[in-house]
Amino acid sequence: MDDVLPPDVLGPSRSRAAIEEEHGKSSQKQPASFRRLRIAMISDFFFPNVGGVEGHIYMVSQQLLRRGHKVIVITHAYPPHRTGIRWLPNGLKVYYVPYEVLARQDTLPNFFSLLPLYRQILFRERIELVHGHQALSSMAHEGILHARSMGIRAVFTDHSLFGFADAASIMTNKLLKFVLSDVEHVVCVSHTGKENTVLRAAVDPKDVSVIPNAVVASDFTPDPSAPQPGRITIVVLSRLVYRKGVDLLIAAIPRICAQHSDIHFLIGGDGPKRIDLEQMREKYLLHDRVELVGAIRPSDARDHLVRGHLFLNTSLTEAFGTCIIEA
């Protein structure tokens, strides 16, 4: 097991003392009654993968660290470069455990394969609260199950909306109902998401709270001079996957361009549907009117959005459309 969980990887330029000193300086002053918690965030979805869940986990962890709590993140490895233990700003410790990815960063549901690793990590870090994220994360479900078996409190945050009729939703809902039967609390990112989760998981609405996502408004100030005059630019910022409605976007772009010669599309994001977008652009000869920017860093989202006049969101389902708020 020592080979699987190596010593902390601090890097040549940072010592443990430096990290602890940095963490201490960033913590807020707490009252005498303050109790420091040891929290483990568990999910299949975390950096270096980019998305709403990943950003949510990171930002919540940073705020908890600033309040004086200890926070670690447990996720699957991204070989060959992101394995073992890594440190992020303010002393955020991340365990990249060796676990195979099934598809799109989802790991294969197996409720007992990670028990030895989870047990060692939770005891090593003396974790008091496990916080699982996202209904499609098998690591989160497994972490909550094993945490409860070890007497550790557990909380779950649901970030997305799911249906009730298709096979994938039926299986996910059954799994969610099984896992959430023994958690301290459930958090949803919108009231619509709460209604969806209560119906899918058969949990008591009193045990579900709504904490909406948010953005820092000062980071998304408009720039009227940025869009190029003489044409209308429709800007898109999304992961290029089926659930984000990229197929609708592919069908709509040729029709819109055929009817309006002054419209251009600026598409930011990456994913498996990018190939379909490139094929559409080549088929209809729209290279000069459809620009595929690729992956956008969260810090560059504002600079991408201000290049357009209109923001287009084609998502099939959204529990909370953060990009709409940013735009």
From TrEMBL:
Residues 225-327 form the Glycosyl transferase family domain. Signal peptide: none annotated. GO terms for biological process: GPI anchor biosynthetic process. Residues 76-166 form the PIGA GPI anchor biosynthesis domain. GO terms for molecular function: phosphatidylinositol N-acetylglucosaminyltransferase activity. Residues 1-31 are annotated as: Disordered. InterPro entries: Glyco_trans_1 (IPR001296), PIGA_GPI_anchor_biosynthesis (IPR013234). One of its GO terms (cellular component) is glycosylphosphatidylinositol-N-acetylglucosaminyltransferase (GPI-GnT) complex. Keywords: Glycosyltransferase, Transferase. It holds the Pfam family PIGA. Catalytic subunit in the complex catalyzing the transfer of N-acetylglucosamine from UDP-N-acetylglucosamine to phosphatidylinositol, the first step of GPI biosynthesis. This is Phosphatidylinositol N-acetylglucosaminyltransferase. It comes from Tilletia indica.
